[in-house]
Amino acid sequence: MKRTLYILALGIFGIATTEFGVIGILPQIATAFDVTIEKAGWLLSSFALIVAFFGPFLMLLLSSFNRKKLMLFVLAVFAISNILSIMAPTFNMLLFARILPAFLHPIFWSIALSTASTILPAEQSPKAVGIVFGGFTIASVFGIPLATLMADLYNWQASFVLCAVVNILSFFGMLFLLPATPKVEKQTLGSQIKILKKPLLWISFALSCFMIASMYSTYGYISDYLGKITKMNGTKISLMLFFFGITGVVGNWVAGKFLSKSILLTTLVFIIALALVHTLLYFCGFYFFPMVIMVALWGFVHTSGFLISNINFISSAEEAPEFVNSIFTTCGNLAVTIGSLIGGFWITHFSIHNVVWSSVLLLFSALIAWFIKRYVVGISGR
User: Fold this and answer.
1) 249, CA 20 to 30 Å: which among 182, 294, 300, 366?
2) What percent of the chain has pLDDT above 70?
3) Dihedral angle at the C-alpha atoms of 292, 294, 296, 298, nearest 10 degrees?
């Protein structure tokens, strides 16, 4: 059974690397197609925007289809998308190739996590889901810096070759090793739609959205920042991204420990800590060794943001976990879009060095949402 979980995790690794691997190669793509870094940022934000709009609905639409076949179809489309990206003659064609698999992204996530939750006995379900979700964490630690390194050693197309290979391996692994899954009864929103009337859900939506947007407003352009401000070359940037991911794994584990004690307090500490990190990035940006330390600290704080945001959001409507998870998919990807667009705007109008202040501004908005949740909506304790 664990073999199945690891196959699902490999699939998550492939699609997560496809989505976020472009972060490390935006400068090369901008140069290759003679576009601004802000326009190149659309390769990340457009993908996330499509996932945000279609996340809650596509799984409902396709819920009566065989789940294994759906996942195989998604992986095939992702592989084809990466192959098209390699051959793209213009930026618009590359953007089209990136957009193509985004419609199917939430389908794989939903099926993989729900499949994992049913493989092992109920009491071991969280562990199973954790193994599958680990594919995303590994993509952050290895996938993104490896994609960046491939671009530095060869060219930007090599990053998409890497993603295509991973998706193809995932396809055949799932084809031969994943047991067949039966059709399931088509779902409706019916009994779950009532959670949309909860004020707590929407303030949690705003809180999570501001937090994740603040993360990607600067992180989406980390390669450009390290290259232009800290004067690092491609190899050093790849190592910094790897370093960022390693400390992020530790930070994610620490955040999980504290979330079990107090969701609200952990969230508040995260907001303040990430704002402090971005402030220090501004003052340390021109200095190599201080930035090595700052990148490690940045990864430690930053990476836990998705977990903290997810727990905040899910805890606001525990009576409808599947539906609220699909809404969180929208929230997270909408936030990535907002963050990357604001970051691109900030770079264009205020310079790459000042992009950190866009994150600080968004974190201040998150802090306001936290206070509303705590003192206006009236959530106490956890």
Assistant:
1) 366
2) 86
3) -140
Distances (CA, A) of 364 to 88, 340, 369, 371: 40, 17, 9, 11
23-82 confidence digits (pLDDT tens): 778 889 999 999 988 888 888 888 878 887 776 677 667 766 777 888 899 999 999 999
Residue 60 in tokens = 């409902």
Helix ranges (H only) for 88-153 are 91-99, 105-119, 125-138, 144-153
pLDDT of residue 127: 61
Answer yes or no: is pLDDT of 359 > 80: yes
**How high is the pLDDT of residue 320?**
64
Can you tell me which residue has the tokens 């352009």?
A: 221
* In contact, 362 and 214? CB cutoff 8 Å: yes
R_g of the chain computed on alpha carbons: 20
Is it the case that residue 182 has pLDDT exceeding 90? Answer: no
The CA distance from 313 to 296, in Å, is: 27
Phi/psi for 135 (5° steps) reads -60, -35
Q: What are phi and psi of 119, to 5 degrees?
A: -70, -45
Average pLDDT, the chain: 84
Please report the sign of the dihedral spanned by the C-alpha atoms of residue 323, residue 17, residue 14, residue 163. Answer: positive
Q: What angle do CA 160, 158, 212 make, to 5 degrees?
A: 45
User: Are the C-beta atoms of 329 and 56 separated by less than 8 Å?
Assistant: yes
Residue type, 84: L
DSSP states of 150-209: HHHHT-HHHHHHHHHHHHHHHHHHHHHHSPP----PPP-SGGGGGGGG-HHHHHHHHHHH
Task: Provide the pLDDT for residue 356.
Answer: 95
Q: What is the tens place of the pLDDT at every residue in 250-295? A: 887 788 778 777 889 999 999 999 999 999 999 999 999 999 999 9
Residue 272 near residue 190, CB atoms below 8 Å: no
DSSP 120: S
Nearest to 167 by CA among 23, 7, 5: 7
User: Shortest CA distance to 41 belongs to which of 264, 371, 358?
Assistant: 358
